[in-house]
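Q: How would the structure tokens look for this protein?
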Amino acid sequence: MNCSDISMKDNKAKIEFIARITTADGRVIETTAEAPEGIPDLTDFDLSTEEGFLRDFDSLEQGLLAAGRQVEKQLASEYLEEASKKNRSDKQKK
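A: Here is the predicted structure in token form.
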């Protein structure tokens, strides 16, 4: 990711995860998730003090973890929904 890919919202950078599963038959299941809170923008990240760095790094880490959990939950749900649809379809063909 380059710096121009970071979106701004209320002077905060946005974390967005995009996850994709490609099945053996080529179907794509994809989802996107964002962290509910933004993270300090590059220009606002406090490197001047240890306390500031730790605070802003914690904000970054918490945002990454939140977005990761959200995308995992969404992708698992969508994958299981597709599996359920496929199994129902396969049973109707028999």
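The CA atoms of residues 19 and 31 lie 6 Å apart.

The first helix runs from residue 50 to 93.

Upvote if useful.
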